[in-house]
Amino acid sequence: MNGRWTVPIRSLLVTACVGVFAAGAVPASRKHKETLLTPFPAEVRDSTILSPGARHVAYVRKAGGGEQAVLDGKAEKTYAKVAELRFSPDGKALAYAAQAGDTWLIVAGGREQGPYPRVGPPAFSPDGRRLAFVAMVAQDNRAVVVDGTPGKPWELIFEGRIEFSPDGRRIAYGARRPDGWVVVVDNRPLGPYEFLGSATGIQFSPDGTQVAWAARAGKQWQVVVNGKPRPACDNLGELVFSRDGKHLAYAAMQGQRWLAVVDGKPQEPFDAIGENTLQFSPEGKKVAYAARSGKGWCAVVDGKAGKTYEGIGQMKFSPDGRELAYVARQGDEEMVVLGDQPPRPFHRIGGGTLVFSPGGRRLAYVARSGTGAFVVADGKRKPRFDRVGYLTFAPDGRRPVYAATRGEHAFTVVDDKEAAHRYEQIWMPPGENLTFTSPTRFHYVAVKAGNVYLVEEELD
Q1: Using alpha carbons only, what angle is made at residue 390 by residues 376 and 83, rounded to the nearest 5 degrees?
Q2: Is residue 305 part of a domain?
Q3: Is residue 122 part of a domain?
Q4: 110-128 pLDDT, tens per residue?
Q5: Taking the model in full, what pTM does it have?
Q6: Does residue 210 sit within a domain?
């Protein structure tokens, strides 16, 4: 679906912090606390990253003829070059690649691993306790280094990708040897295959007991689960496990038609299946995706096709799995479709902004009409701003909470009331919304007067 309007990390951007409000608006003096994280000179902005959970900030700066990683304002050791900054998923550890002379290191928590002729970006396990990366070793071979120990050398590592199981105990990656490609799972090579699938990748089930990938044999492809191949097809698209790990679905092409295969059973074929739409409901009982027949697109739930539109984009199940919301395009307008409710058309719906309340009874999203943006909650438009992002619901599900900009000012909005405290920028990590740490407290990162702050704010 074309014409996405999204709010990336730095798009809530303004250049001053002066208390100016819309005519007739009454600002809310919400209780808040600002904690200085780091000075923020202009030259470091392109390298800046936020930790998951938005409590730490890191960037690269030039120093002493070299470069340094700076974490929350504290500079680390100087190297010739610093690159590929990565936070652990819990946000507590920072790792990066560093050049020392003609060699490269991986630095994590101030500890160096290496040196090697070349290294790839660091990859943390989901629990943040383990670290892996690809390194060049003897005879220009590559090895995966896990917890500081290099594994077996290979000709290449598939796309430089390393996959940990959700509990961090298992690891898998693709590797090339003289007779073809293999998938290495827990140091055991499985294969060989002619090639591995990029769209499917290598995926562990959420419980870590299964690992699946796509492999090509001759002119056909097959999904392989725990080393056992499934029936061959002409091409493969996305592959997803249910949250409990008990169900598997993937998009397969047979001839010129695409179909979803759910737990080994093929569903009705279509001309196309929408990219990034195949998904299970949270409890794993339903599977949904967007599909095209001719020029029309529809949402398919448990094999049943819905109403046809010119395009269908993002799709999202409610937390209880009872409702499916998705964005549909008709002509020059986009709308959110939810059950039997009449959809309301707008110029654009914000990409990735569909948000259900914790109980799943309410839905909100960001829409755009003309040059203005606004939140739509329960089908009703909220106040209009220049930009809106990081939309979420308070934990009690009663109030949508989000960040917005007007002119040169960024602020938060609760109950349609703008916060009185203003910033030059408000940030959250990509894919994250404003984060609640209690029923009444949320936080974000903000820029003001050349500094970065952690801002903790209380609901009224």
Answers
A1: 150
A2: yes
A3: no
A4: 899 999 999 999 999 999 9
A5: 0.90
A6: no
